[in-house]
Amino acid sequence: MHDFKYKKNKFYCENIKVEDLAKRFKTPLYVYSYHTLTDHYLKLKAAFAGINPLICYSVKANSNLSILKALIAKGAGLDIVSGGELFRAQKAGCPAQKIVYASVGKTDQEISAAINKGILFFNVESLAELKNINRIAKALNKVTRVAIRINPDVEAKTHKYISTGKITNKFGIDLESAYKILLLRNNFKNLRICGLHIHIGSQITQSEPFVEAIKKVSNFIRRLKDKGIELEYLNIGGGLGIIYDREDPQTAQIYADQIVPLLQKTGLKIIMEPGRFIIGNAGILVVKVLYIKKTPKKKFIIIDGGMNDLIRPALYSAYHNIWPLAKISATEKADVVGPICESGDFLAKERLIAKVKEGDYLAVMSAGAYGFSMSSNYNSRPRAAEVMVFKNKAVVIRKRETAQDLIHNEIIAGNFIKG
Ligand SMILES: *Cc1c(COP(=O)(O)O)cnc(C)c1O
User: Which pTM value belongs to this model?
Assistant: First the structure.
């Protein structure tokens, strides 16, 4: 459920007419609903109330400080994947003890920073990384907590670019290697291996892959126990799918009903890392129609937002609903494309869509997750502004970039450039 809907043919976010936001803040514009955002977090929390997990929102889905702050204020922790995200987590006021850190390629600098801040634990993705964290912790004279990220080798039944739990993916450590590492845990004097982590992919709409992965690690946990290896945490990752088009994903409650009994049996403290489930349908991208272009074969709706603003259609062939801000009953088939000099720059192809004209506004739905956070300056396009709606108030949570921002770090090598 979300708070974006038509009232008397005008499209609203909570109690604000989105057209007014488009006129006031210009386009392309990301618009988020505070209510939807926090409601999704609270729904998940309620569904899992029986086991009281630490819900660490996945920062990479959308890392805006106001979004992080809104979730932290409700009790969320954060799942980070870089030093930059650690910086954001601190700026947003997240307690270090609620931060978990995954990534196959953590640098020494990033590891040191996270150890010094005292994060809850690292999710470690290789033996080489484990050794490195141990070495750095030793140099810092600290003992740091780590969880082993397990690659459970399950099919997540999602797009291949967002599947992470097959043994051919770069993520995590296979069960047998993890077992050997755990037997040798005392060799890592500056580490405390306190848990296991799994994250098998994203936009997973059924419960089975989760259940399969959790069963595999549960058996593994039992096997470890038999060897006298006790753990404290099980981090089950994120990956919950949402509705973009006609998906029928499990609700938070169905997901909980399926896995809570399994999780309870482990006796461990549970951590979850949802990203898309929380922010995906809490945000839209608002764009303006620049031109309508008819060619002998096609009709193009050319808009002022492109693949630099929302890359998901180009990257994953992702589907996003596109609705006019002022309802139009007539429809036509068209491609919705951006201004970027790439044929991959489209938001929809051969789509039956409202018959819009130049100057009309469109809402690209379900753009809250992996929208702004994946946006770029390609074609020297300043990144969009972001606005959060609180009932009948709208607040800018990121200013639109300017052309000056684009060249901020550039230096003209004047001494060497000769005519
Ligand atoms: C990306 C990521 C998540 C969040 O995935 P969603 O599909 O957005 O829920 C969680 N954990 C890890 C380790 C990730 O890399």
Answer: 0.97
